[in-house]
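Quick question, first post here. What does this chain look like in 3D?
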Amino acid sequence: CWRARRGWPCTGSSPSGRRCTPRWDRDGWDVAGAVGSAIAGLGCMMLAWRALLADLGSPLPLPAAIRVMFVGQLGKYVPGAVWAVAAQVELARDYAVPRRRSATASLVSMAVTLVVGLVAAGVTLPLVSAHAVRQYWWVLAVTPLVVVCLYPPVVKFGLDLVLRVLRRAPLEGSVGRGGMARALGWTTLGWLFYGAHAWFLISVFAGKSGHTFALSLGAYALAWAVGFLIIFFPGGIGPREVALIAVLAPVMPSASALVVALASRVVMTIGDLAWAGAGLAIARGGRGASRPA
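> Answer (accepted):
Ran it through. Tokens below.
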């Protein structure tokens, strides 16, 4: 019906007599697509982190990288901003990775994810949602600064400055241009999958189109960045959903936007748990572990 084509979910019947309410026997495929996209996106982010760690001098076998990344990442659901990194650092010790090296890879990986997400939001949202730009301009405003911070010499300077404040020795090396380029490539692919997961959910109400995909990618990227930057909420729970609802408000009723935001949280949590389950299975099987003597 005309309301569905304009992005508004319909109740009742259209003028032609056809119902426009979502059908879950059909829309279940969209949910499955969202779950698959989330899992693929998380996998790409892991490969970006693995590329950074390898560039720093500690290449990990894929099973080991899955275990360290995703079992450790469950720490993000604990209040406090450091638990995921701390868990990954300790798990990486099982594979003879120095603590400072694994911490560097984790921190740079998070910075790369944030930067690419902000760029995605900055490119897409001005084209599809002026409302979101007005409300969250402060998030987009930091994009040029954080882009500069990904230049490898700037990364090393910043990390060495932090270590100096903590009275620790400086890094023995830093991420090179090649490693950063590989991480950016995997992270960009990961964000496209993240956008696809949101697109599958949003398209239930707004229809499938290139415009909807741009909105989905930009909306989720901005919402993720808001949740990441407001560090007091574990896993960005709360701020991410509020931001996503705000971005979607111009194209669908708040109730529908709330359904999308909650479904997205559930889907991404399923992805986290699926990968963490794989990591725990690897740990139980003992594949790839090489604890130093």
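The radius of gyration is 20 Å.
Residues 1-21, 287-293 have pLDDT under 50 and may be disordered.
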